Structures are given as structure tokens and as C-alpha cells.
Amino acid sequence: MLTYITGKVVLVGEGCVTLDVFGFGLQFQVPSTEIFNNKETATLHVHMYWNAENGPSFFGFSSESEKKLFLLVISCSGIGPKMALSLLAQLPSALLIKAIQENDEKALSSVSGIGPKKAEQIIVQLRHKLGKLLDSGLVVEGKDSISMEEWKNVTQVLQSLNYSKGEVEMALSHIRKENQGGANFDFLMRQALSFLAKRV
Fold first, then answer.
1. Residue 160 parent element (H or E)
2. How many whole angstroms separate alpha carbon 31 and alpha carbon 38?
3. Quick check: 38 and 25 in contact, CB under 8 A?
4. Tens-digit pLDDT string for the chain (200 aa)
5. pTM, whole model, 2 decimals?
């Protein structure tokens, strides 16, 4: 069983990263590409997902805790790996945990591709499982310095400006990385729009 892998980053694409591992180029789908830089060494906690039609896909995570959350989400019926990655990309781990614990359907349904019914299903199916993971220590319940409401507002405004799902995810990932100490909505929006403008 492959649990983690270390290699040199040779390509950072949209939603994926390729590592050179002893001369082999291995591609992994990841929640966020912002933490990866070409030619730097990276370690990914790996999960292989098997699809009957397309065969194996590899997913990589920056921590074992993030990987456990991913596995928790895909254990929910009707939630595939792509939707699980969207959840992790648009909601930081601490906020995802909080949304499930507090029955916050609005927070979950703010994620692209997840409506109110799907959000309710995620909460019902995962709340008990999440409690067990937190109790076991396999997933750490952290604190997020930026409030749930601020994340939702930024997401909604970017969507209303007709940015694509991928662009929104990249902008959220960027401002999450840049604001470990917290920030208000106006500042976050300026950072997001500045980041997206540079990509044009």
C-alpha cells in the first residue's frame, strides 16, 4: 500500500502536480496547487482511487489529516473524488469540519457542484464518522482564523463576477495561504482579484 511519496516537482497544472520520483513522472490530483513550486522537493500523502472505466487515479495531500478528510468525504454516497477535492479546495479543513459538526448546509452548498440536498446528505452521513475520526486523533480539529461567513462572501462575489470554478478555487487557495492570521472581507477580495488579474 502506497501511503506517501517524495519527489521533485516538475510540473504544476490546473488541479494537479507531477513529481519526478527516481526518473518516473507521477501525476497527482490535489486540492490546491499553490503550495507547489517547480524544482522543489515535495511530499504527498497518497490515495489511489480505482474507477472501473478509467482505471486508477492518484490523489495527493499535504498532510495525513487532509487525506483522512478526503477519504471521509468520498465515503458519502454520491460524492466522488472530484467533488471531494472541490470541498477541500474551497473550504479549509477546519471550516469543513465545523460545517459538518454544526449542520451548516449553507456553507457546504456554497461549494460549486453541491446543492442544499447534497449538503444535507453530507452532514447526515458524515457527522457521526467525523466525530469518531476527531476522537481517534486521526483528524485534528483546528481553528481557522478567517470566518466561515467571509469565505462564503468571497466565493459568492467571485462567482457573481463570472470567474470559473477553477479560478475561484485557485483564488481561495491563494488567499488562504497568504492570510494565516486572519483578514476582513474587503482585504480578502482585493487579494483575490489581484491574484486573478495577474493570471490574465
1. helix 148-160
2. 17
3. no
4. 788 999 999 999 888 999 999 999 999 999 888 778 888 999 999 999 888 787 888 999 988 888 989 999 999 988 989 889 988 888 877 778 888 888 888 888 888 888 899 999 999 999 888 887 777 665 655 545 456 567 777 888 888 898 887 788 788 777 776 765 556 778 888 888 988 888 76
5. 0.69
Burial grade of 24 (CB within 10 A; 0-12, 13-18, 19 or more): exposed
C-beta neighbour count of 85 within 10 angstroms = 21
Helix, strand, coil content of the chain in percent (nearest 5):
50, 20, 30
The cell numbers describing 33, all together, are 496547487
Residue type, 86: S
